[in-house]
Amino acid sequence: NWLRTAVAAPAGQGAMLGGMIIDGSRLYTGVNGVGGSYQAFDAGTGISLWARPGAFTSVPCLAFGTLYLSSGPFGSADSFAVDAANGFQFRVLPKLGAIGWTAAGGMVYASVLRGGGNALRATIRAYTRFGRLVWVAHDILVGAALDHSVFGVAPGVLDARDSATGHRLWKASLPGLQSVAPGAVAVSGDLV
Known about the structure:
- The chain has about 190 residues and is mainly beta.
- Helices cover about 0% and strands about 50% of the residues.
- The N and C termini lie far apart (about 35 Å).
- About 35% of the residues are buried.
């Protein structure tokens, strides 16, 4: 067992711990707010492996040795690809506005919100592991993904897309589904 303090927040400004990702013997996390950072720890000992400044505003994703996260104002955040081994930031997608990242198969998916108020627009943007944009689906956010399919959500709707092309495979009405937050949908085997 171990305990570490990820960041010391300035007086009167509480830091908010972001999502945690564990991969083998490493734990990745971030702290939002003033003095924010994203960090890697040895999962067994709690020893800090690296830390970089930057308060992220998305749910991070680890895929292909890369940590994907966004940092900045809601709806216009820059998104970063970070080497998970050393924390080096090697790609920036400026003003993408991603609120969450998901990966499956050879693809990485960004849930993107842009605009504000009644003009808020949701999209899924699908990238190869090397950062090439392959397709965009409008009016939905990523709920979950499998190697061959990605499942988008919108209020009252589950929308299955082909992971390679973004073409709709099927769409189901889910009355009462209000949450489009990460975790609204889960996959296990071929069940959603």
